Amino acid sequence: MRYELYYWPSIQGRGEFIRLALEDAGAEYVDVARRPRGVQAMMRLMASRALKTPPFAPPFLRAGELVIAQTALILHWLAPRLGLAPKSEAGRLWLHQQQLTISDWLVEVHDTHHPIGSGLYYEDQKSESLRRAADFRENRLRKFMDYFERLDRGRNITYVELSLFQMIEGLRYAFPQTMAALEPEYPGLIDLHERVAARPRLALYLRSKRRIAFNQQGIFRAYPELDA
Amino acid sequence: MRYELYYWPSIQGRGEFIRLALEDAGAEYVDVARRPRGVQAMMRLMASRALKTPPFAPPFLRAGELVIAQTALILHWLAPRLGLAPKSEAGRLWLHQQQLTISDWLVEVHDTHHPIGSGLYYEDQKSESLRRAADFRENRLRKFMDYFERLDRGRNITYVELSLFQMIEGLRYAFPQTMAALEPEYPGLIDLHERVAARPRLALYLRSKRRIAFNQQGIFRAYPELDA
């Protein structure tokens, strides 16, 4: 199966959680919007009245006849086919539950620099961002990290572990001082991050041009004033 | 099957989307935290190290051996068992995709009165709320309503339609002036709201004491200054 991923071409964003799964599995896929005229193709498909299951927003995935949106749902469907999730219902439900909690966490990261409106510039909501980011650093971040640290996940790597790698990676970019202070308390998550980064196909991907660098348009942004 | 729902006892909140499905189906369930010492039972279960699939937060559902969290996932699992979703994979995926978009919408409603921190009082983030709510009313609300209005959903009622009923109901409570102005543009959603409200078991539920009234602790709150 040749998968088509549709996502904004200049940021890691939500699409990166799906890219990591596809890359780790060595799956055949096209990152459609990164091709010439790809964004137009994505916008055309999203607006198409012929589509029976239209996405509200990118990312979405096309696999044959199926068009499916929402990051966590895409992974729920895709990962068993990539060998990155068990095929049993109970196992899949539990991974999906964790991934949905990661989605909630990611919204809170995004809102540290966009607490007022996603259509406004950061500069136009900077004072509100300072307050929201402080609350995130002091209260919310630890709550999520405590939760995922406490889970007993064994040595197995699924798409949830790939996503937790991405969270740690992004949080280090966005909140380097905060993370440096917190990390000693989270040996399980840090060990997990290292094990994922060392996976052969993923290590190659992370050094490739296919991996978009973190930048100031994505979900994880490095504004020093929002860090510790 | 006798289901156990765990959710905060004094608000509709996220738990209400699950209550609506259980009530519409006439399912046998216990709203655990609304019983004497129920909140303690909920907190104890959440913190239990014996639980293999611990929730990050309520709501969660217990069904025999299964403990499952995240509103949209609970509905995804539960609804086919209640006759409120098809059993085919494609049909279930499409409903789940829509429900996850409703979850995103609901977060944005919540953040109109809590743009800075969920642990702070509204009064301590009121000026930020005024800005966030204006952005929600002027940009975001219409984007979600346009999306759901445009979907061709036929006459069939699934858990997604019950959830859309609850969104309209809540938005009318929180933003009465805004909704009064918008509703004529959304005949499909308004018709859907009426059809759901008229379902016999649901109509009985909505008039019963089991239906918690909207109030100023829930996700939908009536602060006139945040309305038009």
Structure at a glance:
Two copies of one chain form a homodimer. Chain A has 228 residues and is α+β, with helices and mostly antiparallel strands.
Characterization of this structure:
Chain A is of the alpha+beta class and 228 residues long. The first copy, chain A, has 2 domains: 3-82, Glutaredoxin (3-Layer(aba) Sandwich), CATH 3.40.30.10; 89-199, Glutathione S-transferase Yfyf (Class Pi), Chain A, domain 2 (Up-down Bundle), CATH 1.20.1050.10. Chain A has 9 helices and 4 strands, in the order E-H-E-H-E-E-H-H-H-H-H-H-H. Chain A has a 4-stranded mixed β-sheet, with helices on one face. In chain A, helix 4 (89-113) runs antiparallel to helix 5 (126-150). The longest helix of chain A is centred in the middle third of the chain and has 25 residues, at 89-113. At the A-B interface, strand 4, helix 3, helix 4 and helix 5 of A face strand 4, helix 3, helix 4 and helix 5 of B.
